[in-house]
Protein: Serine protease
Organism: Alloalcanivorax xenomutans
Amino acid sequence: MVHRLTLLALALSGPALADDFQTYIVGGEDATGDWPWAALVEIDFGGGSRGYCSGSLLSPDQVLTAAHCFFDENGQQINTSAITVHIGSGLNGTNPTRAAGAHYLHPGYNNIANPLGNDIALIHLSTAIDVSTLPSLVDDAHFEELLARDATGRDEALTAIGWGATTTDPNNQTVSPTLQQVALDHVPFSTCNQNWNGFLTPVQSSVICAAELNPQDNETENTCLGDSGGPLILGDDPAPYIVGLTSFGSADNCQAGRPTVFNRVLNMVDFVEENAPLVDVTIESGPERYYGALGGQTTVPATVTNGSLRNTARNVMIRANTDDTSADASLQWSGCDDGGLLAGDDQCTLSSLTAGGHSSGQVEVSHNGVTETDATLALSVSSDEDEYRIKNNQAPVTVVFSNRPDLTVSAEQTSADLDSNGQGIATIAVRVSNLSTVNAASDATVELTLPAGTTAGGDDTVQCDTLCWIGPMASGASVDFTLTLTSGTPQTGTLTLAAADQNGGDFPRDNNQHELTVAYSGVKAASDSGGGGSGGGGSFGVGWLFALAGLALRAQPPRRNNRSR
């Protein structure tokens, strides 16, 4: 995948050179059929010249892409009539085609004076198109979670997709016949800006960076020509959160130089709402689990919010249902069109919800008393307006009906030393919890599966060997204790802990076990057993820094980078 840039002179105030930049998703893989909402934006520049960018179908008639795609080689903005959009991730030429009815560029984007930041555009299709899934613009919570990740969590945390070139051959840089995807590492802004010699400081709030820091077999993995405007998404969810749009990268013939810079969509929501009647209606509940006794009931609170900045949601439909016939859901919600719900109703409609408005209610879930269950209560919300965060329209909640406790265990290594005899001594902080709010445990225990050559001991409160005896636990209670492991042959191994109630067991048993890697190197071990992706993490060192004269920016007209067929 390629996006083009212009080299800048050493003095930023000096004239820009006319060199062309080419980038592409290279080293990726075919994504045919994986992303039905993917868009290929075709632009007729006249005289038989055509350009191509990538994009995303955000709603049935709105496509998100990059602003810089819509300027010819003379810096003139093209007319809407020149835009055609192909929707889908089938083979190129087989996807449904729509003409553009209108297109809008961010008012803060200036292709000549200010080509950095705000690189976002919205295309309104002349005819809507229905697809099986749609992406969502990332919300604050998920974006902040991404920014807070450590190096392991940033490794291959993002995926870029697009129709750009897949080769560095300058004579063969046409649109790819198949949609491409590549896993990339999130690069923190401070690192990215350092590698761009501080040039990104003025646009920090509107960009996010990604790169493959440790590619397999040293193969280049990047975005390139024709990928401009394509989405950068969290993970590889088929209905993902979009965090960025491909904007620009290094003028290195699509090789892995500086991190690629993407437009940050979280800060562009107002632009989207101003130019499309889209809303952000969400439904949320409290804890992940609610509890009731066999034949009893439990109350699940919920809140519906219109997180839109300016648009009103009309005819907001709230629904509640379970996936188990033994549990029946009934909405209790004021403000519905019928003036209030009767018992047994599983949906209601609010006539409208203004931008920033919210409405709260509850769901009564009743059990038939026959068989214990951990049913899923599906809360959902929709409105007459299309959404730009459709992913937040559902809130699954687990509802447990049982006469048994629900035990869970977690653990974290806190120290690792060698004693005077060379034995490894590791201390583990353990927490056992009874998540049930209605049932007590009469004889809670934690069974230990120890690494080879290891023995275990508890503390003054909990005695352990291969079994730790907790004893009675009230509903909602937690017990903390310290587990000490001794190994005559200290080496890395796996400790498995399994919580149980010796008198009658517990329910459900989906969260009773925890695995912990125990190490004796003197370095605190991670509390989780998961690992990073295959690409590996890493960081840009001093060797990645280039002279400012080599700085590349996407300021040239896109036609050179969006080759004709």
Q: What stands out?
A: Confidence is low (pLDDT under 50) at residues 1-27, 220-226, 340-344, 522-565. The radius of gyration is 28 Å. The helical segments are 140-147, 151-154, 189-195, 269-275. The first strand starts at residue 6 and ends at 7.
